């Protein structure tokens, strides 16, 4: 059983590990002064969920972009000024999977918490929880139901466990009642959670 | 041996103590190649600090929930994992009924 004290101790151990690692990197001349802090802040300053919202809204309004995004997302997002190469791991690739009337996609990392951080920023806290990571693969329908994602029983659920150097992003279905909306009007309908399949894009009335 | 989309594969069963990207729930399981990707450093070597780790091709493999969890599994669901080639082998077996349960 995990107690608050266990969690505290775990955190303290990790802090010491990070301090030791940073000291070693500095001693080897790989880091200088505030480099680490600046690197982290610089990296995260451009990463936010709104990047994903913009990509989805653009795919909803431009069929050519949608096709290119589903075919090779790593290249397609560069059309909008994004790059997977800005992260600490420049070889990371992006794959976008589309929801449809018959398929719903859900993204998880059962081994740790892999997520398109360079694009969207840090993952939600629940995404890193043991409960989500185990239930997303073993009982995704029940989990989605608890998340309020109401799926018809005929809809196939595809779970993507991010176990390699690919990161996954879900292209939600465009809500009805949004005909004629611009991509600027559509972007706010896409929540951060919808970008990994843990929510549906919201109908305009709810926004 | 390389694999193509649609090929039936079986994941290896190993019990290595270090880093592996093949989760235990997917070891020794039958799936189908869904996509073929590029080559990436073999995590078991890179994670162990090997100076020049080998590169291996990565595939996305689809597993039915019944194959992963046994019956009764949630209907209409499947899990896809990205798996390095050295952890896959061709699945030559024919399961009972003469066909694989690949239905999602």
How is this structure best described in words?
The complex is a heterodimer of chains A (about 210) and B (about 100). In chain A, about 40% of the residues lie in helices and about 10% in strands. Chain A contains nine helices and four strands; from the N terminus they run H-H-H-H-H-E-E-H-H-H-E-E-H. In chain A, the strands form two sheets. In chain A, strands 1-4 form a two-stranded parallel sheet. A two-stranded parallel sheet of chain A has the order 2-3. The longest helix of chain A has 24 residues, at about 5-25. Chain A starts with a helix and ends in a 21-residue tail after the last helix. With about 100 residues, chain B is mainly beta. Chain B has a single domain (about 10-90), classed as Roll (SH3 type barrels). Chain B is about 10% helix and about 35% strand. Chain B is built from two helices and five strands. In chain B, about 30% of the residues are buried. The interface of A and B includes residues 91, 137 and 162 of A.
Q: What's the quick description here?
A:
The complex is a heterodimer of chains A (207) and B (104). With 207 residues, chain A is an alpha/beta fold.
**Structural classification of chain A:** alpha/beta
Low-confidence stretches of chain B: none
Largest sheet features of chain B: 5 strands, antiparallel
Please give the count of helices of chain B: 2
The CATH topology assignment of the largest domain in chain A is: Nitrile Hydratase, Chain A
Mean pLDDT reading of chain B: 90
**Secondary-structure arrangement, i.e. CATH architecture of chain B:** Roll
What's the end-to-end separation of chain B, in Å? 27 Å
Q: What is the CATH topology classification name of chain B?
A: SH3 type barrels
User: From the alpha-carbon coordinates, what is the Rg of chain B to the nearest angstrom?
Assistant: 14 Å
Number of discrete domains of chain A = 2
Number of strands of chain A: 4
- Amount of beta strand of chain B: 35-45%
What is the strand tally of chain B?
5
Task: Give the name of the CATH superfamily of the largest domain in chain A.
Answer: Nitrile hydratase alpha /Thiocyanate hydrolase gamma
Radius of gyration of chain A: 19 Å
Name of the top-level CATH class of the largest domain in chain A? Alpha Beta
């Amino acid at each position: 059983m995990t107690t608050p004290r266990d969690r505290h101790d775990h955190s303290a151990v990790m802090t010491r590990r990070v301090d030791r690692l940073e000291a070693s990197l500095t001693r080897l001349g790989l880091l200088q002064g505030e480099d680490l802090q600046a690197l982290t802040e610089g990296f995260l300053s451009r990463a936010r969920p709104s990047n994903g919202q913009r990509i989805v809204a653009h795919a909803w309004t431009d069929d050519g972009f949608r096709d290119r995004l589903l075919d090779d997302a790593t290249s397609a997002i560069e059309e909008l000024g994004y790059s997977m190469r800005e992260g600490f791991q420049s070889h990371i690739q992006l794959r976008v999977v589309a929801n449809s009337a018959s398929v719903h996609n859900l993204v998880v990392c059962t081994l740790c918490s892999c997520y398109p951080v360079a694009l969207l920023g840090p993952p939600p806290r629940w995404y890193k929880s043991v409960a989500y990571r185990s239930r997303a693969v073993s009982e995704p329908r029940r989990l989605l139901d608890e998340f309020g994602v109401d799926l018809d029983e005929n809809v196939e659920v595809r779970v993507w466990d991010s176990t390699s150097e690919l990161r996954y992003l879900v292209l939600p279905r465009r809500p009805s009642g949004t005909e004629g909306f611009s991509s600027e009007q559509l972007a706010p309908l896409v929540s951060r959670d919808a970008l990994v399949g843990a929510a549906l894009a919201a109908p305009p009335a709810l926004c | 041996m390389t694999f193509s989309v649609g090929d039936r594969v079986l994941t290896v069963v190993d019990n290595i103590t270090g880093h592996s990207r093949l989760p235990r729930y997917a070891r020794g399981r039958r799936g189908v190649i869904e996509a073929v990707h590029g080559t990436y450093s073999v995590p078991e070597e890179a994670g162990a600090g090997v100076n020049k780790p080998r590169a291996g091709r990565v595939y996305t493999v689809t597993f039915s929930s019944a194959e992963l969890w046994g019956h009764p599994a949630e209907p209409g669901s499947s899990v896809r994992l990205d798996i390095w080639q050295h952890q896959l082998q061709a699945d030559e077996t024919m399961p009972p009924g003469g066909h694989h349960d690949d239905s999602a």
